[in-house]
Structures are given as structure tokens and as C-alpha cells.
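Proteins fold reproducibly. Look at a concrete instance:
___
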Amino acid sequence: MELLLNDLLGLLEGEKGLYASMLLALQKEKKAIVDSNHEELNETSREKENLFLKIRILEEQRLSVLEKLARNLGQPAQDLTLNKLSQSVQEPQSTQLADYHSTFLSLAQSIQEINLSNKELLTHSLDLVKGSLSLLGDLLSSNPIYYRTGKMEAGDQSGRLLSGKV
């Protein structure tokens, strides 16, 4: 069981590093969004994708170790959290697991906050682009003419977009 706990602690340390790297990538992404730096935004997207793959691999390994630990403790694997595991093992692993628990909670909250911030920035940017496209569309659309019948029909194109001179 000691060997399994050490394996788990090693995997958790690796995951902690990857999640910290994800947080940094999200911060770089935020800066790229604010600066409208498309190249940097593409680079951070690739970086995040690579981090997701690495996290998934470590996560699968961690789940495998947790299943073995759960069998040793006689508990269902899906109910075995870091908090519960820290209460079931001896020191110093107990303290280490509790520390990882609080670290992962903090990292998850920070990642969630910056992700929400990035989403809001991207939504705002998209709204600005839609507004600009709408403005350009209005400039190209025909000038409507109201007839005595009350019906509105399209007139000629305005052409305001094609020439800035009067």
C-alpha cells in the first residue's frame, strides 16, 4: 500500500504541475485576447491542447492507482476522494494528500475564473465583430422607400461603402 501511495503522490505532483501550466497558458491567452494577437492566441490554443492530453494520460494513471488503493482499503473507487483518502492513511502521506486536495481546489477555482473571464472577453469581441458586420451590411443595403400604400420597397444600393468622398 505504501508503494501505491507513493505512486499516487508522484502522479498528483505531475498533475499539479500541469494544472499550474494550464493556468499560465490561460493567462497568456487572456493577454492575447486583450492584445488581439491572433498568433499568440493560436499558440496558446495548441499549448492548452497539449496540456489537456498530458493531463488525460496522468488522470488515467491516477484512476488506476486509486482503484488499487480502494481495493486495499475495501472502499468503492468512485467514493475515494483525496480528502477521504487522507483520512484513511498514516502520516506523512495524510498531510501530503490534504495539501494536494487544497492545492487542486485552488487551482481549479483559478482556472475556472480566468476561463470565465476569457469567455466574456471573447463574447464581447464577437459582439463587436457582429456589430461591425451589421454596420457594413447596413451601408450596403438598399435605401428603403415608403410608398403611398404603406409598403416598403428596396431602392438602389447606397454605395456609401465604396466611396468615402462626397
Q: What stands out?
A: The chain has one domain: 2-138. Helices lie at 2-35, 38-73, 82-88, 93-140. The longest helix spans residues 93-140. The first strand starts at residue 142 and ends at 146.
